[in-house]
Amino acid sequence: MGRLYDSLPDSFLKKVLAGEDSEIVENLLSLKKQYETETDKERKTVFRDRFANAIWNLYYAIGQKMSPNTPKEKRLFIRYGILDLRYLQPEDQKLILSLPFEEHDPDNSVFYVDEWLIEVLSGNIKPSMTDERPKTSAQKKDDAMQAKFERMTGALEAERNVYQSALERRRILEENLQSMVAQIIQHTTEPLLNLPDTYTESQLKSLDDLLELARDLKKADKELVVTKNSYAKHYEELEKVQQELNMEVDEKITYTVDKHTAENELNTIRQMIKMTVGRQGNHFPALSSTMMPRETRDFNFKLKTLERLRQVEELDYTLFQRTFRQHTNRVPPYVILVPGYGTYGMCWEPYDRYNKATSKGRVAIPIFSKNPMFSIVMAMGDFRWQVAKEFAGYHWMDEGLSGKYYEYISSNKIKGDIKLNFINDYILWMTKESEGIQKLADNDVRFIFWRYVPFPDKLKEDLSKRGYYYDKLYKNELSYRMSQGK
């Protein structure tokens, strides 16, 4: 490969570099040596920046070829930024290398970067960035057809969810029917005649209730018929698009992948890393113990991230809810765990613009954060805002969560970026107000969050006992529910 590479002992570093372009490898090793041996502070800073660029060149080279067969050391380099184990203290090596390499995610939504690249480069997940190179008219037509296919696929999936929800309602009604009928046809014995007795008051009432139940069953069945017909119509339209795209019926779409796709995806990931680290953070790409936060050892590894996301969703239970045709389904976003010494979680995309009904958004969360839960709550606040704003479209300043919050910001002449203000308030809502500690600026914003970012009913009831305004909000909500017959 090269003189410097050949002189390396058998090590983690050598396995990361094995098989890579000799020019990239030799340049990296040369700059690595200069950076490690330089004693002058200013010159060391110069070599550090050059070495960082060389590491990124290697990151791109390995990332563009990522596959399930990529050696573990290379995947750990992409996943955590581990280049040389000597940069890590023994306890840090043990912490990271003892983690299970494969961690189960029931939603298939949380990914390390190496896992994410495998899915994108295999065509299973749509790339995060579109290729901005000039396209021919034929390519533009293909893109338009694919966008149409994605919209129809999303609509079809949403219709299927609506049908399943209606089925569940019918099942519950049928169980009630069976229970009611069983109760009606059970008779006691009339003692004088020694024959089955007449209906009781309870049984007569159940007979009346049967009529109402029958109406509800007919209504549920009518909804199933409408949804079934709508599904059939969408399916027929989808078949036509599949034929134009030369796809088999029921074939799952795979996205076209080339060198530019991989490079664009890595550019996106690098941008995510920069944004999670922040302007004042440490942007050195190789993992080192000297730069790892010491405030915690419980970083955002996959299983911990899944646990923390569950904790957030328990408080903000409508966080991942998506409504289509008055039916609500849970659609969690893709979460990409990025290496780096980051503080900030962020939402890259709230959902696919071609498929509002069922597509997943994209969220980036730093693994090595000094406050892991803070970065996750921040990311969910960003996700909350962007979903609300994008769904409202042109009316985002007038409707829903974004409209009410915009009205609050404007009327109170609060300066600064409205999204950042919302995220900060969301963090206070989730971390302080959920515990009854009133940290939001005033009751106006507290009402907005109570209404549009609601806590579970049990927590609302608990909070009503811990403060006058919480009690007022809770009682007003109960009165409103009663007036609506809920």
Task: Give a description of the structure.
With 486 residues, this protein is mainly alpha-helical. Among the domains are: 137-244; 396-486, no CATH class. Helices cover 58% and strands 6% of the residues. The protein has 17 helices and 8 strands. It has helices at residues 3-6, 12-17, 22-37, 41-63, 72-80, 90-97, 113-121, 137-184, 201-244, 259-277, 302-315, 372-392, 400-411, 418-431, 443-452, 457-464, 468-483, and strands at residues 110-112, 189-190, 195-196, 321-324, 327-330, 334-338, 346-349, 362-366. It has a 4-stranded mixed sheet. A two-stranded antiparallel ribbon has the order 2-3. Helix 3 (22-37) packs antiparallel against helix 4 (41-63) and helix 7 (113-121) runs antiparallel to helix 10. Residues 131-136 have low confidence and may be disordered. Residues 156-183 form a coiled coil. Keywords: Coiled coil.
